[in-house]
Design goal:
Blueprint: H1 2-71, H2 98-106, H3 108-117, H4 128-158, H5 181-213, H6 223-230, H7 238-267, H8 277-310
Helix pairs in contact: 1-4
């Protein structure tokens, strides 16, 4: 039974995972289809734009050709020819018809020679290769933006949190008393008083809660309070009781001293003789004087012996 239940649970989990995977796959397919449709629309729009531009260019060329044909004279123009031999290498003809002039104006070699005279191309010239390259770059950028938007949409479906950012909002001051110092001073003092009052109320509330939570109230009993309870207060015999306390304290101190002396006597057997400081000083001065006199006498005897030897 347990194995069947586990297998059933696993089958349900697999089915749920499959459903989730299919849903995510369908969502991605929808997004991909939308992106492809968007790219197709953009390509179609770009193609239409190019076709329109080509049509305008052709129309402009036709207009220029018509204007040139109107401006040129149809009749032939006579040219005076000198009797001198004409240079055969020169391409100029003595008589040029309007058709020849028009062909010369529209000749691409003549156009190239004219363009080389200028630092930049004329307005009518169009470089198709550069335009195709630019178009490809634009399509690549559009595809990259579409891929980024698809990734962003996938992340938006996966993550449910979408924060709202108000970019147009501006900071507004809470108070308008920045220029009035007296008003600002009063406001700040009032706020400080409110804060102090709030802190005091919070501390009182905390103390009340702690006291309410603490049910045990201990009774501290000292030795003096016990004796005061046992012995009734008698003013007449108060002095006698105080003397008794003093005698008891003195007796305890003597016992402690005897005990200390006994313990020290067992440990240290040497008993030094202690003399007062005044007597010690007097004995030391007497000894010093005796030593001085003895030294003087010895010096005198030595001098006398030396005198006798010298004689």
């Amino acid at each position: 039974m347990a194995d069947r239940q586990n297998l059933a649970n696993k089958a349900e989990e697999d089915a749920e995972r499959r459903l989730i995977a299919e849903a995510s796959l369908s969502a991605l397919q929808i997004e991909l289809r939308e992106a492809i449709d968007r790219i197709a629309k953009m390509e179609k729009k770009e193609r239409r734009r190019l076709e329109k531009k080509n049509r305008l260019r052709k129309k402009r060329k036709e207009q220029m050709r018509n204007e040139l044909s109107r401006s040129l004279v149809v009749d032939e123009t006579s040219v005076k020819v000198d009797n001198e031999p004409r240079d055969l290498e020169s391409n100029e003809k003595p008589v040029m018809t309007s058709k020849e002039k028009l062909d010369q104006l529209l000749d691409p070699s003549v156009k190239k020679s004219r363009r080389s005279a200028f630092p930049s191309d004329q307005r009518g010239s169009v470089n198709t290769e550069m335009r195709q390259r630019r178009l490809k770059n634009r399509l690549l950028t559009n595809r990259g933006s579409v891929a980024v938007s698809s990734v962003y949409s996938q992340a938006r479906t996966e993550f449910s949190f979408h924060p709202s950012i108000n970019q147009t909002s501006m900071w507004k001051p809470k108070y308008d008393d920045h220029h009035n110092h007296k008003k600002m001073w009063k406001r700040m003092h009032q706020e400080n008083e409110k804060i102090i009052r709030k802190k005091r109320l919070m501390s009182e509330q905390k103390l009340r809660e702690e006291l309410a939570a603490c049910t045990f109230t201990p009774e501290l009993v000292t030795k003096a309070s016990k004796q005061a309870k046992n012995e009734p207060l008698d003013v007449k015999h108060l002095s006698l009781r105080l003397y008794q306390y003093a005698d008891k304290f003195k007796h305890n101190r003597e016992l402690m001293k005897e005990k200390y002396d006994f313990e020290r006597g067992e440990e240290i057997r040497f008993t030094p003789i202690l003399e007062s400081s005044k007597t010690n000083k007097m004995l030391q001065t007497v000894r010093e004087r005796k030593n001085v006199y003895d030294g003087l006498y010895e010096d005198y005897q030595k001098r006398e012996e030396n005198k006798q030897k010298l004689k």
